[in-house]
Amino acid sequence: MGMTDTLLSYLFGLYAAGPMDQFIVKTIIPFSFGETDISFTNASFWMMIGVLTALGFFTLATKRLALIPGGMQSMGEMAYEFIANMVRDTLGDEGRVFFPFVFTLFTFIFLSNLLGLLPAIPGTPSAVHTFTPTSHIIATFTLALLSFGLVVVYGLFKHGLGFLSIFAPSGVPLWLMPLIVPIEIISFLSRPVSLAVRLFANMLAGHVVLKVFAGFVGTLLTAGGVLSVISIVPLFGIVAVFLLEFLVAFLQAFVFTILTCIYLKDALHPHH
Amino acid sequence: MLILALTRAWGRIRGRGEILRGANFIGADGLMSDEDNDRRSDLDKLGERLAKARGEETKPEPALSPGASAGDGLRVAVEFVVSVLVGTGLGYAIGSVLGAPIIGLVLGMPFGFAAGLRTVYRGMTAGEKGQAPDGDD
């Protein structure tokens, strides 16, 4: 058994890693700004890879525009149309100003989610192993605050104090207002938090499940006898969960962006 | 299923492609080489296959898959819990400023609960009316 363990850890350098190790932020190039640590970490690294992938993809997709779009071009067009339709359906023509923001947001979240599913290259230092930036609540909360901030700033900019009427739904009797207004304010303030928590929890849970299943395979394989044979079951489980994670990667990016659109609608039309 | 969906999306883009051609999206740089007979016939064949796939696609679809319902439930649960927490936290914060954090917390929690119910109710009714699936506006 000891030998099998060694063999496994030799074959898969990651064997010893626990299910939560994949979320550890590791410094690649240390920097500090006064007291603040602003090091270039594996999170920054994978965000950068996401941005560069998006840049590379859309550069290639728009490079040779053909009458009959090729593979790259149609994928680019698909992404564009998808977000353009979403913005048009929820925000109407006025919402066009938000398209670049929403598109960037979607691309970044989707690629962060998707690239996080790549397997780590065996033998590379753990600091460059695959990392999902969106599995950290600080990253998703920053994104959520960005869209929430845009709603507040644009709403106040466009409607002035009239924007505050979103806290007073029409048709509510005046005596109920002291009750309704705080409820509406809490409901409004919980939006960025639920945006952030939803994305982060989905990504975290998916990756933990993958790693736990992978742990089952290793443990069963080394247990010997019938148990070694059973190890095929969690292996298929990994395949299934992995496929599901592709769906989740897309779906969570979609949910995040469509909710952003719905919230932006409040900034455009605060009166219900 | 996924393949069908992709085929459909690709078909939609081809449809849009014609609109794009009308606008000046495609430069006259010689890349419009689809006058080639082989490619034309390939395209026609593809068109036929797409039409067939689309025809199959319009057959009845299950209204709600268990996975989608579970996703909805999870979404609603997150929204509800977050609302309660935000209400409680806000009450605590306001209470701290006024010098009575615990009273603020106790008063904030029911408001958070109410806000959570309101968010959930809105999300669910918006879905019923066939609006955007996540309409908790």
Tell me what you see in this structure:
The complex is a heterodimer of chains A (272) and B (137). In chain A, the strands form two sheets. Chain A has a two-stranded antiparallel ribbon. Chain A has a two-stranded antiparallel ribbon with strand order 2-3. Chain A is 66% helix and 3% strand. In chain A, a hairpin with a 2-residue loop joins strand 2 and strand 3 (36-37). Chain A is globular. Chain A is built from eight helices and four strands, in the order αββββααααααα. Chain B is mainly alpha-helical. Helix content of chain B is 75%, strand content 0%. Chain B contains four helices and no strands. In chain B, helix 1 packs across helix 2 (37-57) and helix 3 (66-98) packs antiparallel against helix 4. Chain B is rod-shaped and about 80 Å long. Chain B starts with a helix and ends in a 9-residue tail after the last helix. The relative contact order of chain B is 0.08.
Properties at a glance:
heterodimer; A: 272 residues; mainly alpha; two-stranded antiparallel sheet; 4 strands; 3% strand; B: mainly alpha
Relative strand content of chain A: under 5%
Mean pLDDT of chain B, to the nearest integer, reads 70
List low-pLDDT spans of chain B.
16-34, 129-137
Number of strands of chain B: 0
The strand line-up of the biggest sheet of chain A is 1-4
Q: What are the secondary-structure elements of chain A, in order, as H or E?
A: HEEEEHHHHHHH
Cα shape of chain B:
rod-shaped
Q: How many strands, which pairing sense, and closed or not: the largest β-sheet of chain A?
A: 2 strands, antiparallel
C-alpha geometry of chain A: globular
Q: Give the CA-CA distance, first to last residue of chain B.
A: 32 Å
| Oligomerization | heterodimer
Which pair has the most extensive contact?
A-B, 34 and 40 residues
Secondary-structure-derived class of chain B = mainly alpha
What percent of the residues of chain A sit in helical stretches (DSSP H or I)? 55-70%
Uncertain parts of chain A: none
Radius of gyration of chain A: 23 Å
Q: What integer value in Å does the Rg of chain B equal?
A: 26 Å
